[in-house]
Design brief:
It is built from four helices and no strands. By secondary structure, the chain is mainly α.
Length: 109
């Protein structure tokens, strides 16, 4: 999966996580979306670790048997959103650098 497509998928993941539902329900929906639309074997090697961390955070939040205080759930939900945004920003920076390098190479020749 190329970086641009991955950014689109992460944007869709953020939309799922913003819906007005309980945090465990949102996390379960987001986890289902990741399993269906962003399979781990299609994720680039350079971002696999960060993506895997997001999956682990979603699994923790989606666990129905998790007896975490509501304030902690809210905090963990915020951490997941920040992780998604940081990965999104990293992909955007990578795309910008690749575009710059391609443009610089065209101007040299």
């Amino acid at each position: 999966m190329n970086n641009t497509l991955m950014m689109v998928k992460l944007r869709e993941l953020m939309v799922i996580f913003i819906h007005r539902r309980s945090i465990p329900e949102k996390a379960a929906d987001a986890l289902r979306y990741c399993q269906e639309c962003i399979p781990a074997n299609n994720v680039a090697i350079g971002i696999y670790g960060e993506y895997h961390d997001i999956i682990e955070q979603l699994q923790f939040l989606a666990n129905e048997e998790n007896h975490t205080a509501p304030d902690d759930l809210l905090s963990y939900g915020g951490e997941v959103m920040i992780s998604i945004l940081m990965l999104y920003e990293r992909l955007g920076a990578t795309i910008a650098i690749e575009d710059y390098v391609q443009q610089s190479n065209r101007l040299k020749y």
